[in-house]
Amino acid sequence: MTGTALSRGIRIAAALGVAAAALTGCSGDGKGTPAWTSGSGPAGTTTPDASSSGGSPGASAGASTGASPGATAEATASGGGSAAPGSTASAWKVFTDPAKSVSFELPQEWLAQSVAPDSGTMPGALKIEVKDAKGGYLATLQTGLQPQPVPACADGAARPYVVVSSVPVELPHGGGAGTIDPHVVFRVIQGYKYFGSYGITNILGGSGGTSCALQNLVRGPEGRGDYSFGDLAVLKTFAPDQKVAPAKAFDTLDQAAKYVNESSEFANVQRMLMSLKIRN
Fold first, then answer.
1. Taking the complete model, does pTM exceed 0.90, yes or no?
2. Closest CA to 38 of 194, 207, 257, 191
3. Are 200 and 216 in contact (CB under 8 A)?
4. What whole-number distance in Å separates Cα of residue 62 and Cα of residue 80?
5. pLDDT of residue 86
6. How far are the Cα atoms of 17, 77, 268 from residue 60, in angstroms, in the given order?
7. Rounded to the nearest 5 degrees, what angle is found at the Cα of 276, between the Cα atoms of 9 and 266?
8. Which residue, among 124, 231, 218, 222, has the nearest Cα to 171 in the 3D structure?
9. CA atoms within 13 A on the CB side of 101
10. Which among 2, 73, 132, 270 would be 20 to 30 A from 198, CA to CA?
11. Whole-number Å distance between alpha carbons of 194 and 85
């Protein structure tokens, strides 16, 4: 990666300053190039609800954006970024449902298929699965989801999480406590490995850089229901005997950053998620 690309791409959202060794979340400006910088100790200071992780010793982020207190990694992406950050597919098509209520771009060779919505969804709800050319699962778009409260997190159950990439996207949404404007994110939560997931959200992950569940969910406007678009609706940690897919599993945070920085899959998925249009 060149120095110019690095300076354009890296936005450090927050840093952990009180732990003996720290890891911090960073967010891209739409170019898909957040990165982890090796260091020998803590950097910067903690901000409320910042997505920082007390991970393996000796790793830290390299710089700070100077975000104001209370800013979160989910919300601290800057710049107006292209809707095609680093995408590699040479040809794209547009999927639109028959009622023309939603649309999004996807690579020409990928497949988008409408399936039956889950039980309990609102009238007119959609469920659309996206797969690659070989039939491998990539993401699901669901609309008309019944609003649900954020699940309670038992004492001691929250795990550190990090926002590796966060890019703002204009979509209809509701507000309220614990919400931000919608962002396309890639987040990692720490268990026996670092588990990662991409999606669109306007719900904060958790306070103090820890969470039990990271929701790839957008609170919709009043009466419209919620919606989600990502590989998982909710990212949690996994037990060693549980199936991880379609979530990603990494041995280190550097591997997670490499997936965001260099993977053609993520670059194309990010463009697809950012292209979502939901019509009133």
1. no
2. 257
3. yes
4. 23
5. 63
6. 10, 19, 28
7. 45
8. 218
9. 14
10. 2
11. 24
